[in-house]
Amino acid sequence: MGMVNDRQLRMFGDQPQRIGAEPRRYAEVSTCAWNTEEDEFDAKPGKNRKDLLEEICDRENMQEAYLKVVRNKGAGGVDGMTVGELDGWLEENYEALIGRLLAGKYKPMPVKRVVIPKEEKGKVRELGIPVVVDRMIQQAIVQVLTPIYEPLFSKTSYGFRPNRSAHDALKRVKEYADEGNVWCVSLDLERFFDTVNQSKLIQLLGEKVVDGRVVSLIHRFLMAGVMVDGVVTPTEEGTPQGGPLSPIMANILLNELDGELERRGHSFVRYADDILILKATKKAAERTRDTVTEFIEKRLFLKVNREKTIVARVNQNVKYLGYGFYKNKGEWRFCVHSKSIAKLKAKIRVITARSNGWSLEWRKYRLKVLVNGWVNYFKLADMRTLLKEIDEWCRRRIRMVYWKQWKKTRTKLKALVKLGISKNQAWQWANSRKAYWRIAGSWVLTRTLGNAKLEELGWVTFEDRYELVKC
């Protein structure tokens, strides 16, 4: 069962299977937004039967889950198996694996704890990375649960759902603001994924999933534990981020909140655990904050971070999914939030650091990836002036990198002369003791490594990318 494309014959277990050119699409397990132009979804509520476990273990469903895990790549879990080794393992163990699943004897392995820093200084986000076999099983479960739950989810819920993206959520916020709902409640759920009440979640699953074996299997995944420094710690609460199950479990739990907000007639948008409720007046927003907080804590057993939950006008430094908002000629428009700009500059500083030892070609590649991804995400914002300023700052840092890499006086002299500076002036600048940043802004580098020259050398700009993709 080697790594082949979707149209080739693949061995899955011991039976040859023809993979369709366009396999069915389901909810992504990463944080990437769905492509609403390419992906299609056909919800089938009638699929909630008592033989859901058999449907999960169906060869075609498992094969699709395998392909999804392989495409998403990702690190291995506590057993050390990589994604590339999964096909070989399945050739020998597939039938036994399915047998254990159907017999209710499959025991998931603990997840591997991975810690990544958050925007707030000193704070971290804890991820739980399942072993690749568990990731495949979780993905197979997601593919069967998604058609059951999609018709039940709110129209204003956008996170980790097919044919929905962060851009769709932002456009809905704009619609509400244009209607006069300019006061918002930005709810912050404290350590949401780590504090999900498993008993409440299992109760909700049992209300919709008829096959109790599937509920039991999901419960075993939730309780699999976390391995840190070789020691396994039980997980009696939470749904660890990092596996395919976590997003849909979050949506199932928070769909209860969506239903309550709809019942009360609130205008709201939710993207995973990022919740924004919009009201016409400050008083109404404050009242909503208090009553909704009570519901979340008493009915869903989650904790609302009161310090980070704010009530403010939409344009008062409110940040939602990285965007800010402003009003122009009677219409609410998007901008890039100041915190998102600071985060972008921090990434550019890493790419253009003078002393990280990176080659120029690697820097160009890293910058291109950053530019494409960042601009594609923030393309809804009005940011032409902003990007012009960022490009100027970025180019100055690039010139600083060149000056640093030239290093020796004779190398600087040779490079400047080659770029058109007279030998006498080149000698003076090559011997200059001015700081790197000051030299990078001087006429000698802005002339020799001007905008056109940097473009010729392969450096991309945010402004050019924006002109290609802006909405």
Question: How would you characterize the overall build of this protein?
Answer:
The chain contains 19 helices and twelve strands. The protein is α+β, with helices and mostly antiparallel strands and 471 residues long. The strands form four sheets. A four-stranded mixed β-sheet has the order 4-3-6-7, with no helix packed on it. Strands 8-9-5-10 form a four-stranded antiparallel β-sheet, with helices on both faces. It has a two-stranded antiparallel ribbon with strand order 1-2. A hairpin with a 2-residue loop joins β1 and β2. α2 crosses α4 (132-149), α11 (338-351) runs antiparallel to α12 (360-377) and α14 (409-418) packs antiparallel against α15 (423-430). The longest helix has 23 residues, at 384-406. The model is unreliable at 1-11 and 13-46 (pLDDT under 50).
Total count of helical runs of at least 4 residues: 19
Spans of at least 5 consecutive residues with low confidence:
1-11, 13-46
Radius of gyration (CA) equals 26 Å
**Oligomeric state, counting identical vs distinct chains:** single chain
User: How many strands, what sense, and barrel or not for the largest sheet?
Assistant: 4 strands, mixed
Report the helical percentage. 40-55%
- Secondary-structure-based class equals alpha+beta
What's the shape?
A: globular
Record the strand order, biggest sheet. Answer: 4-3-6-7
**What is the β-strand count?**
12
Mean pLDDT, as a whole number? 88
In whole angstroms, the N-to-C terminal distance is 43 Å
Strand content: 5-15%
